[in-house]
Every structure is written in C-alpha cells, then in structure tokens.
Design a protein that fits this description.
The complex is a heterodimer. Chain A is of the alpha/beta class. Chain A is about 30% helix and about 25% strand. A ten-stranded mixed sheet of chain A has the order 9-8-7-10-6-1-4-5-12-11, sandwiched between helices. A two-stranded antiparallel ribbon of chain A has the order 2-3. In chain A, helix 2 crosses helix 5 and helix 3 crosses helix 4. Chain B is an alpha+beta fold. Chain B is built from 18 helices and eleven strands. In chain B, the strands form three sheets. In chain B, strands 3, 4, 5, 6, 7, 8 and 9 form a seven-stranded mixed sheet that branches. Chain B has a two-stranded antiparallel ribbon with strand order 1-2. In chain B, strand 4 and strand 5 form a beta hairpin. In chain B, helix 11 packs antiparallel against helix 12. Chain B is globular and about 70 Å long. Classes of the chains: A alpha/beta, B alpha+beta.
Chain lengths: ~300, ~575
C-alpha cells in the first residue's frame, strides 16, 4: 500500500492561442486564454492512480494557484484522487520556482506521510522543469526526473526508466521518492461518470467565500462544515495555515526577475552555403563557436 | 479537445428539449436515492446536469479515443482461435476505457453499481458512440441484457449478474436466432430440459449471435417439449465457456469489430428467467423495444458520421475551379442528408422518451400492485404508453435505418471514385450501415409491427389536436401540407380497408406506414421549428418533400400497380 502526492498545475491552454491573446509587448494575456490541466501533471496523476490500482493506498493532489485552480482539483477528483488540496493566497502571487517549491514542500510536510510524490516534468507555461526537483531537495528526499516508465515497485524500492539524451537509463531508488514524468509515460484516464456526479459540487474555501459574499444569510464556517460533511470541501491552505515565512513566498521570495520579453518572429532570412567537405564543415563549426551556439 | 457531444449542436438542442421530469422522479424515488448515493441527483436540474456531464465524457471518449481506432478495428476484425474469440486490440482498449469511466451499466440501478440513467440518455450515448465506431455499439449497446435480467429475473440473479455488467467485467449476448428461426422466432428449436432436481439445461445451436462470446448469454429455448409455437418458449440465462462452444464466427460485410458467433450448447446448465412460456411472448418482445431503439441510434450515429465525411470532402474537393460543395447537385444532396439527419433525430428522441415513459409507468404499476395499492389510473396510462411505444419503435427503426443506408450511399457518391476506395472512411460507413435495417428485425418486419396501429389510426386524437392548434404565422403553408398528407393517408387507408384483401394489405402496409411516418415526423419538426428559427428550413424541406412522396405512396396503392402480385410465379419463374 502506497501513499502518493501529485503536484498539479493549471496552465494557459497554449493549444488554443488566437490572435488577441498575444500582446504587443510579446507577453500573453492570460485572461483571454482558457486554463487547462497541465498535461504532464495529468500523466503524473495517472501513474499515481495506477500505483493505487495495483498496490492499494491513497492519492492526494495538490496545487498552488489562484482560486480558479480548483477546476483542475475537481478534475483530479473525477479521475480518482482521494484528496485534493488548494494552496492559495494572494501573497503567493508572482512566485518563481524557488518560492513555489518552498510553499509546496511546506504544504506536503503538513499534509503528512507519503511514499511517492509525482509531478509532470514541467508546466507548459514556464517550461522550467525545476519545481519538482527543488521540492525534492527541500524535503530532502531523492528524485528521479524524466521518468518514462515505472518498471517495478517492490520492497519499498522503485525501479524506473528515465529518458536521457540519446537513450534511457534504469534507476533504482528506495522510497520515499519524488518522480517527474514525461508525456508518453501513460495516457491519462477519462473522468469516471460516478465521480463526476458525486464531486461536481466540490468547492474550495475561496469559492465558498464567494457564495457567501452575495448572501448575508450564509456564513463561511457553516458552509465549509456543510461541504465537509458531504465530502465536498476542497481543503484549502493559506500562508497562515502553513505558518510560512513571508519573505520566502510570492514575489518577495522569488529571485528570478523577468528582465525583458522579446517577441521573436521566426522567419527565413539569409543563408550560407556550406560545402559538404571536411574544410567546409570545419568552417561551419568555427562560425558556430564564434556565435556562441557551440562551445 | 474534440467532443462528439459538445460539437453537435443538434444533440444539445434535443437535450435541452427533453422532458424527463416524471421519468427521473420515478427512477430516483423522488430523489430519495440522493441520501444513499453521492452520485444521485438531488433534484431534476441536478439530474439533467449529471446527464450532460456524463454525455460529455461519452463524447470525449468517442471523439478522442474510440474514433481514431476505428479504421484499425475494421481492418483487424475479430478472431476465433481454439474456441475463444478475441476482439481487435482497439476494441479491447475502448471497452476498457468505457468500463473505467463507469459507462457499462448506464441504465442499471445504483445498488448494482449502475448509473440509474433514463433510457433516453443511454440512447443518446449510443448515438455518440456509433458515430465513432458503429461496431463498438454492438458491445456497448448490449447493456440491455443486464436490464432484461433486472426486469424479469429474480433478486438472486440480479445480484449474481448485474454488478459485473456495471463494472464491464461481463458483457452479454441475446441468443435468439437459429438457422431456421430468424424473423420467425416462434420456430426456435433449441431445447431446454430439466433433470430430476428441476435444474435446467440447454442443448442445441444458435446462429448469428452478436457478441456470442460474451460472458452472459440470454437464451430463448423451447422448454415445453412437443410445442411448436411461441408459447412453448422460455428465456434462460447461462454463462459462456465450458459446455457452450463458439463453433464459428461470421465473416461479415461490415461492423467488423463486433463478433457474430455460432454457438453450440451441449447440455449447458442454465437458469430460468421469470416464468415458463413467457420467453418470447413477453420478455423477448419487451427486450426488442430497447434493442430496436439501440439499432436506430446506431443508424443515426452512422448517418452523422457519413454526413460529416461528405460535407468535409465536398468543401475540400475542387473541380471546375471551385469546391464541389458549391455545385447545386452536391449541395442539394448535402441538404437532403442534413434534413434527414435532423428529422430522424427528432423522431429518435421522441420515441426514446415514449419508451422511457412506458417502462417507468410499467414499473410503477408493478410497484403499486406489489404494495396492494390501486393502480387503475396508472394502468390506463400504461396502456396508452404501450400502444404509443408499439407504434413509434418500429416506425423509428424503419425510418432511421433505411435512411442511414441512403445517407451512407449519398455520402459515398459525393466522394466520387475516392469514396469507393478503402482509404476513405465513407466506404466503411456504407458497409456498417447495411446491417442496421436487417438485424433486430428487418425493415419488412418493422412494417408488419407498425401496420396494425397505423391502420387503426391510433394517433388520430393527437393529429386532430395538432391540426386544431395555431402555429407561427410563417408556417401556414406547412400546416396545410400536413393536412393534405393526412387526407391522402385517409384516402389510401379507406381504399385498402375497403378492398378487404389481406395480400394487398400486406403490400400496401409499407406505403401506409410511410404516410403515417410523414405525419409523425412532420409535426415533430414543426414543433422544433417553433422553438428554433433555423429549424424552419428543416421543417420546410422535410414537409414539402413528404407531401411529394405522400402523393406517390397513395398513387402506388390506388393505381393497381400491386395487382400483378397474383401473377408472381409467371413473372418470376416464367411459369405458364
């Protein structure tokens, strides 16, 4: 029996970028993009669910994000996650990978014991592939990145095949461990009809607060209790709940600063002809080194 | 993400129009089930939201996973090796995914692991699945087997079989047809006998059994030795394997993903379902409603796919300097297809709701009977509902399956030579469509089934009421056309009845049923047009076409064209 935690993220749906989404300065107007479940994180959830299907145990999904990230937590419930957690606070806004992994690792410590942490290799908005590894470091557990297959789980030891340049390697590691998975590792399962019907009304704290806002007859605490009693409360953790160091959260805790964003338009321009001879290739390599492309 | 529920605005149109309030309230015990099951709805709106969300799952699976596998399923087909049947690998994946998504027990009660959905919603799911892969419908659509066990089996049988249908562990088959008993099921010979302890055993052969390799078989067998008709037949349930041998699987024109088996029962232990002698006359007839609706939905799914292929090709294919879509002959064919598609859908969901109502009222009557309460009022409602379902079901199967063939034919025609090639999807659709007007009762049998109620004009009061009401002002002409079709129908009916010739009646029945179907569908599409302006185009084309056809139907009946039937031998066999 294994307990897994899956790190999931809501990202802009880059597959549906239309004209008015890209702004003049080359940044993305997020409000105009539908938000979706980061695909590789969904793959990570699928792997966790497969481990549960085979060996028993539980699967918890957590996300750090704005209140609307509750959407993907509901999707986690629809697929089969036992518990979901929204880590949300205005003070988390603008977090880079360092601040994000700090908050996530503290949240995981609060959630409790685990055998596996799964995450997608990277999110399609940042493409950093750092949050998984940094979370493992902060929790002081081993990590296997770029996993494309779980070969076996025996005697609290996992054997995984990981993708490397030009091939793969087989890695063995004792639990607990954090694994990041690539998109071909598994095909995420479809939503389960019964779970969709049972959990479609699941709400996070912020969503419940919104319900209360327009209605003086309701109280947040009473409503939270009611949702909790019907197993429809999406556990919500804020900075205070986690007793976090504010200096390490959000923009303040993020050393990464975006210096400049360029809108790069790829177009065919000049080209040089390289003779397919030893001398020609040599010249090409010299040029690439000169342009800092190689070396 | 492509989704065959969300991308089809006509499905949403009908979904929004569904009037299932009473049906759902009955099925949900006035929403008391919500106390026991977290997935049960708390009220009607909640139920409809549930259905919508689940149809979205069906639409997603159909478009993103099932559809892309269809070509390989068609090519790979099914295999029989060492007596065991295996599905194409794509079919296996699709079945696994449907089961994983909780979709294999849609109409079964929650206490047996099902979703407790109305039949109407299940029919919509079948249409969506069939658009992706018609052959998968034959497995997905066999959920009725479980439902038949629920309705007529005992509690022990329900507990034994239903939960495993819901999880997808079991699929089933209806073993009715035999080499000498196809349309004529009264001739079934397969023998059911009892040993000294009263246990039942089956011996004999069944043929053309869809999914005959399924784990659970419902078998129609002769339990009353020496009898020759339907009253000597009972329904049995047995497990496959062991003494049931799959002797062969058929090599078919279409629906390659669905195995069609010849089964040999060698003293196979079986359990009686319900009461002896009611096998054909009650249980199979009951099951047929749902099976015929399933095939109608399958036909509509194929039609939708054929239309999409034709439309896409017509817009892409350039000849004479423009897309062939712009050629009047082609665009006219596309409009004909689209009109048939939408009017067929109106009929399908109208009938599905009628069958749903009949089934639920039937259950209510049974329940009241069981509780010793008065059920006179519900019983008369049941009689009406049964009559309506009895008429609408065969009319729907007749119209939709014939139409699916026509649409697949036209879709292929629009493709020209390329449509005849294996590389294009439309040739598979033409092959798949071809079975729909044959199995679960041929078109000719549907005419027989509908003819009595048509000749008794059982919808007279409905049509009177529709003629009396006022429609939107622009529809005057269409209303007049429908009135004219009705008087043409009466004209033809009077002619047929006065002739008092049963042979003539048998032949004229097809034209009479078609005339009646124009009225049923014509008024349905007029209702649709009242709520959706775009549907006025559909109503207009359908009703004007129907009037032209109605004139032809009446002409065929009254012109004496059928009189040569008496000389069939001279014409066909050159007999003097």
């Amino acid at each position: 029996m294994y307990h897994s935690i899956v790190l999931v993220k809501q990202v802009p749906d880059t597959a549906n970028i239309t004209g008015n989404v890209m702004q003049e300065d080359g940044t993305v107007n997020r409000a105009k993009l539908p938000a979706v479940f980061n695909h590789e994180d969904k793959v990570a959830l699928e792997i966790a669910l497969q481990i549960k299907d085979t060996y028993g145990g539980t699967v918890s999904a957590i996300t750090m994000g704005p209140p609307r990230a509750s959407d993907i937590l509901r999707e986690c419930l629809y697929m089969g996650a036992d518990r979901v957690y929204l880590i949300s606070d205005r003070k988390f806004a603008g977090a880079d990978t360092l601040a994000t992994s700090y908050v996530l690792s503290e949240a995981i410590k609060k959630i409790g014991a685990f055998d596996f942490i799964f995450a997608g290799r990277q999110a399609i908005d940042g493409d950093t592939a750092q949050v998984g590894p940094q979370t493992a470091e902060k929790l002081q557990i081993p990590q296997i990145t770029y996993v494309e297959e779980i070969r076996s789980v025996e005697n609290r030891t996992v054997t995984a095949k990981r993708k490397i340049d030009g091939g793969f390697e087989i890695v063995r590691c004792t639990l607990p461990v954090l694994l990041t998975v690539v998109k071909d590792t598994a095909e995420p399962r479809s939503f389960k009809a019964k779970r969709v019907m049972a959990y479609k009304g699941a709400r996070s704290l912020m969503e419940i607060e919104k319900l209360v806002e327009g209605n003086s007859l309701l109280s947040t605490d009473a409503l939270v209790n009611e949702y909790e009693s019907r197993s429809l409360f999406i556990r919500t953790l804020t900075m205070d709940d986690l007793k976090l160091d504010a200096v390490r959260c959000g923009v303040r805790g993020s050393p990464t600063k975006v210096y400049e964003v360029d809108s790069v338009v790829l177009s065919g321009g000049e080209h040089e002809h390289v003779e397919p001879t030893k001398a020609g290739i040599g010249k090409l390599i010299d040029k690439l080194i000169e342009d800092h492309i190689l070396g | 993400m492509p989704n065959f529920f969300l991308d089809n605005s006509d499905l949403s149109f009908h979904f929004k129009k569904f009037d299932l309030r009473n049906i759902v309230a009955l099925a949900e015990d006035d929403y008391a089930q919500a106390k026991e099951f977290p997935d049960a709805p708390v009220n009607y709106d909640d139920a409809m939201e549930n259905y919508k969300k689940v149809l979205e799952i069906v639409g997603d699976l159909a478009a993103s996973r099932i559809g892309p596998r269809t070509a390989s399923v068609d090519l790979e087909g099914v295999k029989l090796e060492d007596g065991s049947v295996s599905y194409a690998s794509g079919t296996q994946k699709s079945l696994h995914e449907l089961a994983q998504a909780d979709l294999m027990g849609m109409v079964l009660p929650r206490k047996y692991g099902g979703l407790n959905f109305p039949f109407t919603i299940y029919i919509m799911a079948i249409e969506i699945i069939s658009r992706a892969d018609a052959s998968l419908m034959n497995l997905f659509g066999l959920q009725d087997i479980g439902d038949t066990i629920r309705k007529f089996g005992n509690e022990r049988q329900r507990e034994e079989f239903l939960p495993k249908f819901s999880t997808g562990e079991y699929t089933g088959a209806m073993a009715l047809t035999e080499p000498d008993a196809g349309s004529d099921l009264q001739s079934v010979k397969l023998q059911a006998y009892q040993n000294q302890d009263g246990a039942w055993f089956l011996r004999g052969v069944k043929r053309f059994i869809t999914n005959g390799n399924g784990q659970v078989l419902l078998v129609l067998a002769r339990s009353e030795a020496g009898t020759k008709d339907g009253r000597g037949l009972s329904l049995f349930v047995c497990k496959s394997g062991g003494s049931v041998k799959v002797r062969r699987i058929e090599n078919k024109l279409g629906i390659h993903g669905s195995p069609t088996c010849e089964l040999q029962f060698n003293d196979t232990p079986a359990q009686l379902i319900g009461s002896r002698k009611f096998g054909l006359i009650k249980y199979v007839l009951d099951l047929m409603y749902r099976a015929r609706m399933g095939v109608s939905a399958q036909a509509l799914g194929i039609s939708q796919a054929a239309y999409e292929e034709a439309l896409r090709y017509a817009r892409d294919r350039v000849q004479f300097g423009k897309a062939i879509y712009a050629l009047p002959a082609v665009s006219n064919m596309l409009i004909e297809m689209r009109v048939a598609l939408e009017t067929n859908r109106s009929l399908l969901y109208h009938t599905a709701q009628a069958v749903d109502r009949k089934e639920k009222v039937e259950e209510l009557v049974e329940k009241l009977k069981g509780e010793g309460k008065s059920f006179a009022e519900q019983n008369s409602e049941l009689k009406q509902a049964t009559k309506l379902a009895n008429l609408l079901t065969p009319v729907t199967k007749y119209v939709l399956t014939e139409s699916a063939n026509r649409m697949a034919y036209d879709a292929l025609q629009i493709h020209g030579g390329t449509g005849y090639m294996k590389e294009f999807r439309v040739e598979r659709l033409a092959r798949d469509a071809r079975i729909t007007n044959i199995y679960e009762g041929t078109s000719q049998m549907q005419i027989v089934a509908a003819a009595g109620n048509v000749m008794n004009d059982i919808l007279k009061e409905d049509f009177d009421a529709k003629e009396a009401r006022t429609y939107r002002s622009g529809f005057d002409k269409l209303v007049e056309c429908l009135k004219e079709i009705r008087s043409l129908f009466y004209d033809a009916l009077k002619y047929v009845l006065e002739k008092k010739d049963t042979t003539f009646q048998d032949i004229a029945a097809k034209d009479l049923v078609e005339l009646y179907s124009y009225l049923i569908i014509g008024y349905l599409v007029l209702d649709d047009a009242e709520v959706d302006q775009r549907k006025a185009f559909i109503a207009n084309r359908y009703i004007l076409n129907a009037l032209a056809k109605a004139r032809g139907n009446v002409e065929a009946i009254k012109s004496g064209v059928f009189s040569d039937i008496l000389h069939a031998d001279k014409i066909l066999l050159n007999h003097d």
